[in-house]
Amino acid sequence: HITTSLPLPSERDHLRPRIDMIVFMIDIKSKYSLKNVEASLAHVDASFFLGKVCFLVTGVGRVNYCSVEMNAIWKLGEVYCSPVLFCELELEGIRVATAQRLLRMLQICAGHIPGVSALSFGTLMRRSAED
């Protein structure tokens, strides 16, 4: 399910499936995109930041057109203890690889991978980013 901002409308709560993972997309070319994500973060339950949230930064192949400071994005990942992924949507190979990675993360967050929890996966992601 896709939404442009949070909170989600409450009138359809009874029809909404369980939410296993939240991916916040930030377009590196749009300051509005970052501000929208920052505003939406206040509506996410704190328990989701334990391995069930990630930030997907798009447009990274166009650093010359960057409107968002990378430090602001890295700080979001650090403050919310959530991984930051980068993707160039215009390149099919990168787009497919990113979709596969997100799908694998979702499988873990939904509990479909035995022996790996969303919390332990989040810790592994942070460690691999530091290496």
Give the arrangement of secondary structure elements.
Elements lengths: L21 E6 L3 H11 L11 E6 L11 H10 L4 E4 L4 H18 L8 H13 L1
Parallel strand pairs: 1-2, 2-3
Describe this structure in words.
With 131 residues, the protein is α/β, with parallel strands linked by helices. 40% of the residues lie in helices and 12% in strands. It has a three-stranded parallel sheet with strand order 1-2-3, sandwiched between helices. It is found in: Chromosome, Centromere; Nucleus. This is Centromere protein M.
Please name the defining characteristics of this protein:
single chain; 131 residues; alpha/beta; Rossmann fold; 3-stranded parallel β-sheet; 3 strands; 12% strand; globular; Centromere_Cenp-M; Centromere protein M; chromosome; P-loop_NTPase; centromere
